Each structure stands twice: as structure tokens, then as C-alpha cells.
């Protein structure tokens, strides 16, 4: 009877040790993933800022004029369609 209780107690202790080890390992992984999430959020913010900078009206208009040689048409060249 005592031997059985000792074996059960030892097995229970090993289970607690294993459970604690797994818990610590999962916590470390969680911390690493949260850090990675924070890095990605920072990067996403920078990308949004860069996109808003590249998409400004003045920049697009400048590129249209210089690279594509686009100009605003005269009022005589505008054709209005009626439904």
C-alpha cells in the first residue's frame, strides 16, 4: 500500500514538474510573439505613413505633369455629355 502511494505521489510530482515546464515554455513563446506583434504594428504604422506620403495630391499631380506630360485641358477641349 505504501509503495503504491509512493509511486502515485512520485508520478504526480513528475506531472506537476512537466506541467510547470510546459507553462513556462508557453509563456516564453507568448512573450516572443507579443514582441513580434509589436514590431509588426510599428512596421505597419510606418508603411501607412509612407503610403500617405506617396499618395499626396501634389506628388501625383507633379508626376502626371513631368513623367506623363499631362496637362489640364482648355475649356474649349472639354466635351460635356448629356444623359
Description:
With about 80 residues, the chain is mainly α. It has a domain at about 20-70. The protein contains two helices and no strands. The N and C termini lie far apart (about 100 Å). The model has no long low-confidence stretch (mean pLDDT about 95).
Secondary-structure class: mainly alpha
Mean pLDDT: 93
- N to C succession of SSEs: HH
**Residue windows where pLDDT falls under 50 for at least 5 positions:** none
How large is the count of helical segments? 2
Percentage of residues in strands = under 5%
Distance between the termini: 98 Å
- What general form does the structure show? rod-shaped
Determine the fraction of residues in helical runs and give it as a percent range.
over 70%
Biggest sheet overview? none
| Quantity of strands, as a count | 0
Report the radius of gyration as a whole number of Å: 33 Å
What is the structure about, briefly put?
This protein has 83 residues and is mostly helical. Helices cover 76% and strands 0% of the residues. It has helices at residues 2-54, 57-66.
List its salient traits:
83 residues; rod-shaped; 76% helix; mainly alpha; single chain; 2 helices
Detail the topology: elements first, then pairings.
Elements: H1 2-54, H2 57-66
Amino acid at each position: 500500500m505504501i509503495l503504491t502511494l509512493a509511486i502515485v505521489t512520485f508520478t504526480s510530482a513528475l506531472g506537476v514538474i512537466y506541467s510547470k515546464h510546459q507553462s513556462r515554455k508557453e509563456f516564453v513563446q507568448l512573450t516572443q510573439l507579443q514582441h513580434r506583434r509589436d514590431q509588426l504594428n510599428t512596421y505597419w504604422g510606418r508603411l501607412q505613413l509612407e503610403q500617405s506620403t506617396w499618395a499626396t495630391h501634389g506628388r501625383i499631380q507633379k508626376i502626371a505633369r513631368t513623367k506623363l506630360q499631362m496637362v489640364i485641358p482648355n475649356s474649349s477641349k472639354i466635351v460635356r455629355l448629356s444623359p
